[in-house]
Amino acid sequence: MRSNRRYPVDAIGRFNMAIGVEPAESTRPAVEQDHIAAPGRLIFMGIIFAIISLLIIVQLARLQLSPQAQVIVNDDLSSVYHIFYPPRGEIYDHWGRLLAGNIMVYEIGAQVAYVDSPKTIAFALTKVLANHQEYNNPGYTSAQYQADIEAELLAAIESGRPYVPLADFVTEEELGQLKVWASTYESMPQVKDDDGEPASLAGLLYRPRLQRVYPEGGLVSNVLGFVDRLGQGYYGIEGRYNDLLAGTPQPTWFPLDPNRVNEIPEIDPGSDLVLTLDREMQAAVMDILEEALDDTGASSGTVVVMDPNNGEILAMVSLPLVEMKPYWETDSGRTENTPYNRAVSQDYEPGSVFKVLTMASALDAGAVTPDTVFHDTGSISIGGITIHNWDYGAWGEQTMQGCLQHSLNVCLTWVAMELGAADFYSYLQDFGFGRLTGIDLAFETAGRLKLPGDNDWYEADLGTNSFGQGIAVTPIQMIMAISAVANGRGEMVMPHILHSMVRDGSQYTPLAQVVGRPISAETAQILTEMLSNSLEHESSVALVPGYRVAGKTGTAEIAGPSGYTSNETNASFVGWGPVGEPRFLVYVWLEKPESSPWGSVVAAPVFRDVFARLVILADIPPDETRMSIENP
Amino acid sequence: MERIQSITQAYSQTPWRKQVQLIGIFLLVLVASALVAGVYLNVTARTNELGREIQEMQVHIYGYYDLLGDEADPEDIVPIEELEQNIANLRTQLAYLTSYQVMAARARDLGLEPVDPEDIVYLEIAGYAPPEFVVLAPPPQPVVVSAAGLDPAFRESLFDWVGIQIRETLKYFNGVTP
Q: Cβ neighbours of residue A298 under 8 Å, at least 6 residues apart?
C-alpha cells in the first residue's frame, strides 16, 4: 500500500540540505515514496498488534466475568468449609481386646455441577435408605424424605454451591445398593425422570469415614459411655477422656480459586486407651449379677472389683443397663432418669458395711482394741434417739470381733462415742467421704457427709453414721476407703480405669496414686484378721472354698418421704482376698431385693461367686497350694 | 556541531516522523500491554491448571469417590488416612468376630463349659512369667541431655578451638586425612 499523501517540498528540501544531499529531480520520488510507505506498514502492523492485544484483553475479561469466576469471587461461595475429624482413639481392655473401635460408614453427597437428574437422585436415595435407622423415623414418610432431598439439590443448584451432603452413616450394604442403582441407570439411557431428563445418579459422590462402635455391646457400656453422631463423648471413659480420644479436629476453608489452594492440615489421630478392665472378669461379674437380680428380684445391682494394691478397676457392672437412644438422636442419649453408672453416680446409705471404717478408725485411734469387751443391752441412746440392733436383741458381752461378726449397731454406736465425734469425722474425711474419689469416669458424685457444725448435723448422726445410716456414699467411695484396710498397708489408693495411653507412637503409663494413709498398716492387718475370722465363725455364705477372705455384710433401710422403711433395703457386701496376698476387693450392692432384705443372704453369695470366678480367671491357686509352693 | 544540530532539528521536524512517533507510541503501549497480558494469562493459566490438579488430588485425599465407579485403584497411592481407616475398620470387624458373646457361643457350641474349681490342677512351672498388660507401643524414650550432643562451640574453650584449628591446618598441609 502506498500513500498518496504529499509532503511540502520545502520541508523535504530543508531536510536534504541539512544532511548535505543535493536533491536530484530523478531521485526525489523514490525518497518520498520510502518515507511515505513507512507509516502505512506501521499502521498495518499496529492494527495486527491491536487485534491480538484486543483478543488477549477480551479473553481476560471473558474469564474474569465468566459465571465460574463469579462463583469464586462471591464471598459466600468462594471457599468450601471442611472439618477434618481425626479417627477417634480406640479403647482396649487389660489384655488388648478391643472394647471401642471404629467402623467404616459413608457420607453421600452430590457434586452439583455434575448432577443431571435431581429427581432420580432423590428417588434412589429414598428407596435405598428407606429402612436406614436415621431416616426411618415415625411420621417421616418416604415421600417427605424424597421431597427434602430434591429441594436440597435444587437449592444447591440455584445457589451455585459446589457440593451438598445428602445422607450420612450409610452402611456398606446400602452403598452397594446405590452403586447398583447408578450402574443400572447408566445402562438404560432411555429411561427418563418426571422432568423428561435422562434418569441418572451422575454427580453422586461418597466418602468413607469412621463411626464409633462397641464390639462387646452392653458388656462394658456403663463404663465406656457413648459417642453421639457429632463425635462428642458422653459418660464413662468416652466422656471423661473425650479430648484425648477425639484428637483435635482441624476446621479448614478450602478456596475454590485454584490460585489460593490450601494445604490439607496434618491431623493427629486421637489417643488409644488401654483400660485396667479385664473383659473376661467383666463378663463373669455381669453373668453373676444378672443371675442375682433374677434370683433376688432386686431392682438394680452394682458390683465393682478393684485391685486394692494399686486401685486398678478390674470389673465394674451396674444393672440394669441404661437404655440408650440411638446414637443419631443427640438430645440426651438416654431415655430414663437413672444414673448411667451407679457405681460412681449414685449415692446411697450403705448400712453395716460402713462398720468396717468405724472400727478401723477406733482401732487406729486406740479407742478400742480387738479384745475390748462391750456389754450389749440391746439399745443405746445418743442425741435423743435410741438405737437398737438389727434384731432388736441384746447380745451381752461381745469383743470387737463379735460386734462385727454379729453386726451390732449398738456396739458400733458405742465405739463411735468412745472415739468421739471430732476424731470419728476426721477419720471419715481422711477416708475420702464427702468428696470425689477422682476416678477417671465422667459424672462422679460426691455423696454427702454431714459434719459437726453443719446446720443439719445432730449428735444422733454420730450414732447412725457409725453403722452406715444417715450418710450418702457411692460404691466407688466405699471401695476406695476400704482399700486402705484391704491392702494391709493402710494406704488408700485412687481407683482408676485408665492403665495407659498410646499417643505419637509411645505408650504412657501413669503411676498408681496413693491418696492418703488414714490408718496404720497394723490396724489394717488386725481388722482384716477380725473380719476374716468373723466370716469363718459365722459360717458365712460369703466364704470361698480354698481361699481365705475377709468381708462385711450390710443392710440399710431406705429413707422415703415418710421416714425409713424396713421392707425395702439396700443390701451390700464388701470383701477381699486372698487374705495375706490380697488381689481383689469386691463391692456388691443390690437395691431393694425382694427375696430377702438382708445383705448376708442376698449380697454375700454374689461376692462368693464373683470371687470364685476371679481367682480362676487370674490363675490364683487356692491358699493351700500357694503355701506349699512358697514353703515347700 | 552546528551541522549535527541542524540534522537533529530537521529530523525532528520531519512531517512523517510525527505520525511515526504517534503510531510507535501507541504500538509500544499496545504491544507492552499485550505482552504483559499474555504473560499474565499464560502464567495464570498454568498456575490454575496446577491448582486444579492439586484440588483434585485433595478431593481424592478427602476420600470422595464417584458413585459411578472411580473406585480407588489398588495400584494408586492411597492416602494414609484412608489406609488407617481401612485398618481400623478391619480391626473392629475382627473384634466383633472375637467378642465375648461370639466366643462364648462358639465355646458352648463346642460343648465347652466353665471349669469347676475342684477340677483345676495347678502346676508349678519354673520360669513361668504371667502375662502382663498389653503393650501397644514402646514406652516414651527418656529425654537425655548429653554434653556430646551439644554444638562444640558450647563445649570448647578458646584454647581448645585454637588447638583444633592448628591441627586441622597441619593435616591439610601435610595431606593427612583424619
A: A292, A571, A590, A591, A592, A593, A594, A602
Peptide bond between residue A249 and the one before it cis (omega within 30 degrees of 0)? no
**Å from A344 to nearest chain B CA?**
25
List Cα–Cα distances, A526 to A374, A519, A520, B67, in angstroms: 18, 11, 10, 73
Any chain B CB within 8 A of the CB of A338?
Answer: no
Q: Is A475 exposed, middle or buried (0-12, 13-18, 19+ CB in 10 A)?
A: buried
Q: How far apart are CA A84 and CA A463, in angstroms?
A: 59
Chain B residues in contact with A101 (beta carbon < 8 A): 88, 91-92, 95
Q: Which three cell numbers stand for residue A199?
A: 434418569
Q: At what angle do helices A409-419 and A355-365 cross, to 10 degrees?
A: 40
CA of residue A84 relative to chain centroid, distance: 20
Amino acid at A105: V
Which chain A positions have a beta carbon within 8 Å of B136's beta carbon? 92, 96, 272, 274, 502, 507
Residue type, A630: E
Q: Given an 8 Å threshold on Cβ–Cβ distance, is B134 in contact with A96?
A: yes
Nearest CA in chain A to B24: A42
> According to the model, what pLDDT value does residue A354 have?
95
E strand segments, A433-562: 492-493, 498-503, 506-508, 514-516, 550-560
The segments of chain A whose pLDDT lies below 50 read: 1-9, 11-12, 15, 24-31, 328, 330-333, 335-336
Nearest CA among A388, A314, A304, A319 for reference residue A350: A304
- Which of B48, B117, B140 lies nearest to residue A612, judging by beta carbons? B117
Provide the angle, in degrees to the nearest 10, between the axes of the packed helices A604-617 and A279-296: 160
| Percentage of chain A exceeding pLDDT 70 | 87
Closest CA to A484 of A534, A513, A518, A512: A518
Are A36 and A2 contacting, i.e. CB atoms less than 8 angstroms apart? Answer: yes
Residue of A353, A413, A349 lying closest to A553 (CA atoms):
A353
**Is B175's pLDDT higher than 80?**
no
Distances (CA, A) of B41 to A21, A66, A74: 51, 15, 22
Predicted pLDDT at B2: 74
Q: What pLDDT score does B178 carry?
A: 43
The model's pTM = 0.78
Contacts of B138 in chain A (CB under 8 A): 505-507
Backbone angles phi, psi at A438, to 5 degrees: 90, 10
- Which of A:59-118 have CB within 8 Å of B? 59-60, 82, 87, 90, 92, 94-98, 101-104, 108-109
Residue B109: its H or E element: helix B100-109
State the pLDDT at residue A480: 96
| Distance from C-alpha of A309 to C-alpha of A179, rounded to nearest angstrom | 57
- ipTM of the complex in this document: 0.79
**How far apart are alpha carbons A195 and A214 in whole angstroms?**
45
Give all strands (DSSP E) within A217-293, no chain letters.
226-227, 233-234, 250-255, 272-275
Tell me the C-alpha distance between B178 and A272, whole Å.
50
Cα distance between the two ends of chain B: 74
In this prediction, residue A9 carries a pLDDT of 46
Residue of higher predicted confidence among A551 and B149: A551
C-alpha cell at B131: 502375662
Burial zone of B129 (CB within 10 Å; 0-12 exposed, 13-18 middle, 19+ buried): exposed
Phi-psi group of B78: left, alpha or beta (phi > 0 → left; psi -120 to 50 → alpha; rest → beta): beta
CA distance A122 to chain B (A): 14
> What are the pLDDT digits (tens) for B99-137?
999 999 999 999 998 888 888 988 888 888 888 888 888
Peptide bond into A269 cis (omega under 30): no
